[in-house]
Structure formats: structure tokens, C-alpha cells
Design a protein that fits this description.
binds adenosine-5'-triphosphate; 344 residues; Rossmann fold; binds magnesium ion; five-stranded parallel beta sheet; single chain; 2 domains; two-stranded antiparallel ribbon
Length: 344
């Protein structure tokens, strides 16, 4: 395998957190990183938490929200705070897989073809409006997310170690869109649904904007808080966060219940066409480990699982037609299953 060709990666400057620092120092630095994001973005705690969780687990985020809810600002702030290379890709109907991955290009001066890396060869990718592009381009992205490598012309190129994709979808737009295939949704660690800020927060957003001199992001997030090497080491720390025996069993029981919800609540019989896969159990455990770490703990508590179960499960459940006709949503189903679980 071949290392990804280096693009215009900025020099990794020394930062507050050296890669050799101990795990507790590193955890404190990640907690500081999360706090720094809240300096740049008002509220949207759900999004900010989930972004850091995905970063800490090597997972990817699917974010659904109307325009103007700070999706771009938040991911840019994260990229700055971890000193990552960042690339936004606007997904359009005419995009081709090679526009993402890169392709072999003939170099007349060299008399041969050379691989020219596409925009996916960055640490953090914002895949905007992923449902505006046809299935083969979505597949190229989702395959890269899963494999963390790209194969072109029989040659395999590794993506950066941090490689983190945040894909967005606008819930209001359906015409001319290509819904992501159910099977591919499973590749997203979390599916986050954003809401409008509160009235107070909206006023703060306005005040913050008016107080800004230039167009740079305000606050500490404009400074690197941890470096990329520390993020990769923190991923190892997160994998060591303790998940107790009872919680492990509860995770498996919850995920299995999405396939047979009537085992928890009789009225949910024949509501689900397809439940969550075993990958969902791993996703819930890993995300809960990251949330625990972000909260300064080295062990998962039931509240971590309760907080994350909706984001882990909502995109992995396919409801039956009858359920849809009765107005049942995947979110309501997850809540029912949670309430019937040992977490409560
Ligand atoms: N919670 C917030 N905190 C700080 N700024 C915010 C917040 N919400 C919105 N903004 C400001 O509103 C503007 C729009 O934000 P941004 O471009 O990040 O939204 P978006 O969700 O990416 O929108 P789109 O879906 O159109 O791409 C920016 O100037 C941003 O700073
Ligand atoms: Mg945007």
C-alpha cells in the first residue's frame, strides 16, 4: 500500500498537547478542545459533542438540519482546533467518483500516468448535501469511509489517519435528491438531527457576529488546542474506557430488540422491516466510550448509552409500511425500546 500523497497540509505546529503526554493530560486536552468549540459556536451542544465523539472513535457523522444551523462553522472550528487539513465538497448531480477519489492523469513531461489525489485526501471532510449526488458517487464516499483507503487503477492509497467525514442532508429538500441506500447508512457511526437554537442563543449568535471584526471564527477554537497526533493517541485511550458487563449485555439486548421490538412491547409487533445490525452494537459501545472520555470519566454509565442510542439507531431501522401509516418513527421506536430496557 502507498501512503496518501501529501496535499497542501499545513505544517503541524507545536501545540499545547505533545503526543508523548500521559493519557490523563490528553483527556484534559480533549475536554479543553470541546470547551473551545463552545467558544466559537453558540449552543448546538449535540452537534459539537457528536463531532468530537466521531473524531475520537474514527467514525463518521450524518447530520440532518436546515441551512444556517452552523454545520459548516462547527466542523471548520473543529478542524482548526485539532490542526487538521479540511476540505468541503459540495455534492451535485454531475459529480463523478473520480472527482472525490482522484484519478490517474497522464503527465506528458514524464511520459506516464501519475495519481492525482482527490479532495478525500484530507483529515476532515465536510460532504455537503450528500443526497444530491447519484448512488455511484455516494458509494465511492461510503467505501472510502469504511475502508479508509482508496483504490485507483489497481493501486491502493491510504487516507490520512484522522480521516473523518461529516456528511449533511437538508431535511426540507426531497425533489431531485438521491436518498442514501439503507445498507450504506449503517456506515455512519451517528445520525444527528439538528434543531434551531433557542431565542437567547439566537440573540447571542447575532451579538457574536456583530462583535466580530473580520470573518474569522471567534474564540479559542481558532487556535489549535490539540494536535493530530494527540487525537490519534486519544482514540487508543477511548478504546480502553471500561464498559461494565451489565452494560455490554444491555447494548446487545437493545440492538437485538430493534429487530424484534414486540419482545419489549407487544404493540410494536410487525412494525420493523429491518432492525439494526451488529455494527450498531459496536457503534453504541464505542460512541459511549468516547462520550464518557469527553465527560472526564474512564468508564461508561447508563446515561451515556441513553444519550447516544437514538443517534446510533435512528438511521439503522427500516420501518414497515404499517408503522409509517400509523405515524410511528424510528425515534419513537428507539424511545419505546429504551424505556423498556434495563437502563431505566
Ligand atoms: N450556533 C451558532 N453559533 C455561532 N454562529 C452561528 C450559529 N448558528 C449559525 N451561526 C452563524 O450563521 C451563519 C451560517 O452558519 P453556517 O454556514 O455554519 O451554517 P450551515 O449549517 O453550514 O448552513 P448551510 O446548510 O446553508 O451550509 C454563520 O455566519 C455562522 O457563524
Ligand atoms: Mg454549510
Amino acid at each position: 500500500m502507498i501512503a496518501a500523497p501529501s496535499l497542501d497540509a499545513p505544517a503541524r505546529q507545536a501545540s499545547a498537547q505533545s503526543p508523548s503526554a500521559g493519557s490523563s493530560t490528553r483527556q484534559a486536552a480533549i475536554v479543553a478542545l470541546r470547551a473551545a468549540l463552545s467558544q466559537a459556536i453558540v449552543g448546538q451542544d449535540l452537534l459539537l459533542d457528536r463531532m468530537v465523539i466521531a473524531l475520537l472513535t474514527g467514525g463518521h457523522l450524518l447530520v440532518e438540519g436546515v441551512p444556517g444551523l452552523a454545520k459548516t462553522s462547527a466542523i471548520k472550528a473543529l478542524a482548526q482546533a485539532v490542526h487538521a487539513t479540511f476540505q468541503r465538497v459540495q455534492f451535485t448531480p454531475d459529480l463523478l467518483p473520480g472527482d472525490l477519489t482522484g484519478s490517474d492523469v497522464y503527465m506528458p513531461a514524464e511520459g506516464k500516468s501519475r495519481f492525482v489525489a482527490g479532495p478525500l485526501f484530507h483529515d476532515i471532510i465536510l460532504a455537503d448535501e450528500i443526497n444530491r449526488t447519484p448512488a455511484k458517487v455516494q458509494s465511492a464516499l461510503l467505501e472510502a469511509m469504511q475502508e479508509r483507503q482508496i483504490t485507483v487503477g489497481g493501486q491502493t492509497y491510504m487516507l490520512p489517519g484522522m480521516f473523518f467525514v461529516m456528511a449533511t442532508q437538508n431535511p426540507l429538500e426531497h425533489s431531485g435528491t438521491y436518498p442514501l441506500p439503507e445498507a450504506q447508512l449503517d456506515r455512519f457511526l451517528l445520525h444527528v438531527v439538528l434543531d434551531y437554537p433557542s431565542a437567547e442563543q439566537e440573540r447571542m449568535i447575532l451579538d457574536m457576529d456583530l462583535a466580530k471584526a473580520g470573518d474569522t471564527l471567534a474564540g479559542a477554537a481558532s487556535m489549535p488546542v490539540v494536535d493530530a497526533a494527540a487525537v490519534l493517541e486519544a482514540r487508543q485511550d477511548v478504546r480502553r474506557v471500561h464498559v461494565a458487563e451489565t452494560l455490554r449485555q444491555a447494548i446487545v439486548d437493545l440492538v437485538r430488540a430493534t429487530r424484534h421490538p414486540e419482545s419489549r412491547k407487544a404493540s410494536l409487533k410487525s412494525m420493523v422491516g429491518a432492525g439494526a445490525s451488529p455494527r450498531a452494537a459496536l457503534a453504541l459501545a464505542h460512541a459511549a466510550q468516547a462520550l464518557a472520555y469527553l465527560r472526564g470519566r474512564d468508564y461508561v454509565i447508563p446515561d451515556d448509552l441513553i444519550a447516544l442510542a437514538p443517534d446510533v439507531l435512528r438511521h439503522r431501522i427500516v420501518l414497515d409500511l404499517e408503522a409509517e401509516l400509523r405515524g410511528l418513527t424510528a425515534d419513537a421506536l428507539v424511545q419505546d425500546l429504551l424505556h423498556a430496557s434495563v437502563f431505566f
